[in-house]
């Protein structure tokens, strides 16, 4: 007598698969097209990443190159005690041949790679070694710029800066935002004075396309190490005002409603040009570390914001030999 066929609900199957090592999932891509497509969804990627965090299945990722030769490549180091400092694998990225891509943020174990000097960008999963090449932008660049007293200036150079990578939970989509700097010059002049214009582009992984969005009143003046993104909102530090009225500001972008807004820096009782204000993530919230430019008596103040209100968490007195703080982390 043939036993009745018993099938698990697909949701339960995906829950079980998300707890498996990445090496097993790579093999299971061949089981069926449905499993292969499910492994690429933001929900599954996020679930797999959080399960790896719980199980401490993490590896250290290093950017490397041999001397002055190209191409640059990445290496993964195993975190297992019996394989201390052992290179798990070397990963070459042929798409960025003869260029050095910058890592603009990590989200759910995915990395956004971007070459600021070109239009090349990619979303990379180091665990599965899957590599999604972002298509070039189709957004039009103005070839000329009319400047009073100088006639028409021609477009000379395009650069891509201050990219950020985040997750939009409203549409279950990964997005990349970047600021495009356009440099215009008068080619007839021997030493042309440049004039700058900016555009802002947003990439959606779901639609696999770029679109232009309205530029904010201010643009980032300082690149973050990676990018600061909290709950789908990305942050950059910017500055405005003249020399005698120089002020700092935090520019934010909501991946969900695709709108910019401004957030003041905390009122720490000092003059902004005389202090560093570094952005960071602290306990899942946006924070800043404030410290003086003077190296003789540097103290570090940590401020954290909640719904736009800054609260000073603590202050660390001067420590000799410290150049700048890197951030905070939990040590077990």
Automatic annotation (TrEMBL):
SUPFAM superfamilies, alphabetized: F-box domain
Pfam families documented for this protein: F-box, FBA_3
InterPro entries hit by this protein: F-box-assoc_dom_typ3 (IPR013187), F-box-assoc_interact_dom (IPR017451), F-box-like_dom_sf (IPR036047), F-box_dom (IPR001810), SCF_F-box_component (IPR050796)
Location of the F-box domain: 8-48
Source species, domain of life: Eukaryota
UniProt xrefs under PANTHER family: BNACNNG10540D PROTEIN, F-BOX PROTEIN CPR30-LIKE
Protein name listed in UniProt: F-box domain-containing protein
Originating organism: Gossypium darwinii
Native organism taxonomy: Eukaryota, Viridiplantae, Streptophyta, Embryophyta, Tracheophyta
């Amino acid at each position: 007598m043939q036993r009745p066929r018993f099938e698990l609900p697909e949701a339960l199957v995906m829950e079980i698969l998300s707890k498996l090592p990445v090496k097993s999932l790579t093999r299971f891509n061949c089981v069926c097209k449905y499993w292969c497509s499910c492994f690429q969804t933001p929900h599954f990627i996020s679930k797999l990443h959080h399960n790896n965090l719980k199980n401490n299945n993490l590896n250290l990722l290093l950017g490397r190159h041999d001397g002055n030769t190209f191409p640059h490549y990445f290496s993964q180091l195993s975190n297992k005690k019996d394989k201390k400092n052992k290179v798990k694998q070397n990963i070459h990225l042929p798409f960025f041949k003869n260029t050095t891509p910058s890592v603009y943020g990590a989200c759910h174990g995915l990395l956004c790679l971007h070459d600021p000097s070109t239009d090349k960008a990619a979303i990379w999963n180091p665990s599965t070694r899957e590599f999604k090449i972002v298509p070039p932008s189709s957004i039009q660049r103005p070839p000329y710029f009319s400047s009073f007293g100088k006639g028409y200036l021609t477009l000379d150079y395009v650069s891509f800066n201050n990219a950020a990578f985040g997750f939009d939970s409203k549409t279950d989509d990964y997005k990349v935002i970047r600021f495009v700097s356009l440099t215009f010059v008068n080619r007839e002049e021997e030493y042309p004075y440049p004039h700058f214009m900016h555009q802002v582009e947003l990439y959606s992984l779901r639609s696999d396309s770029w679109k232009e969005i309205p530029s904010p009143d201010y643009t980032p003046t300082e690149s973050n190490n990676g990018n600061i993104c909290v709950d789908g909102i990305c942050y950059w530090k910017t500055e405005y005002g003249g020399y005698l009225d120089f002020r700092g500001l935090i520019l934010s972008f909501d991946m969900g409603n695709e709108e910019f807004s401004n957030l003041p820096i905390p009122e720490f009782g000092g003059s902004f040009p005389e202090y560093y204000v570094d952005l960071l993530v602290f306990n899942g919230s946006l924070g800043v570390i404030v410290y003086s430019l003077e190296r003789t008596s540097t103290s570090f103040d940590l401020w954290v914001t909640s719904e736009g209100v800054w609260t000073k968490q603590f202050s660390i007195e001067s420590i000799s030999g410290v150049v700048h703080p890197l951030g905070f982390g939990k040590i077990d």
